[in-house]
Structures are given as C-alpha cells and as structure tokens.
Design a protein that fits this description.
31% strand, binds zinc ion
C-alpha cells in the first residue's frame, strides 16, 4: 500500500489522485495512476473524466488472475490517504479479472 500511496503522490492535474498496485504471489505485476481523458466510454465529453488507476494497472494484463491483490490509494491535496472505493466501471473490471482482494485506503 505504501507504493500505491507514493504513486498517487505523483498524480497531477486531476481532482482525485489515485495510485494502484497489482500484486500476485508477492510480486508487483503492474502499477497504475489515474489520468485525465476527454471522453468517457459512452463518448460523452467532459474535462473531468479520467482513466482510473485500477484500469491503468490492469491494462495489458492477461485475465483471469488468480490470487491477485490490488492495492488502491487515494490521497488528498495534503498527501494524506483518504477513502476510496471502486466505481461501477472498475468494479466490473475487477470481477472480470477475478480479483478477489482489493485494498483501498481509508481516512
Ligand atoms: Zn473507477
């Protein structure tokens, strides 16, 4: 989780700063941070849409995963961990990838 928090600290230019670390068998498989994008999956435009850290961490990873844990950190402007939870899009992705353990930061 420390790594996910550190990653979240590198995020700039978005309202909520997230970092995600995918771990399997004690090994870090991939990292993700959230990023700004201009369109959501329905093609609607808004300056506030982002690619979520969970999506970025799972990009290019073969599914399904077995015994993988995803650590997701959200931090405030003052760099302290705050509550995070998966949005419905990410939740679907986590189910698709068979990720049974997801650890989110909380205040
Ligand atoms: Zn999400």
């Amino acid at each position: 989780m420390d790594l996910a928090i550190k990653l979240a600290g590198t995020v700039e230019g978005v309202r909520s700063r997230h970092g995600a670390v995918l771990v399997s068998g004690g090994r870090v498989l991939s990292l993700g941070v959230n990023k700004r994008r201009n369109m959501n999956i329905a093609g609607q435009r808004s300056p506030h849409y982002t690619y979520h850290a969970e999506q970025q961490a799972l990009k290019g990873i073969e599914k399904p995963l077995h015994k993988a844990t995803l650590y997701v950190a959200r931090i405030s402007k003052a760099n302290s961990p705050v509550n995070s939870r998966p949005c419905s899009e990410c939740y679907k992705l986590l189910v698709e990838y068979n990720i049974k353990e997801v650890v989110y930061t909380h205040e």
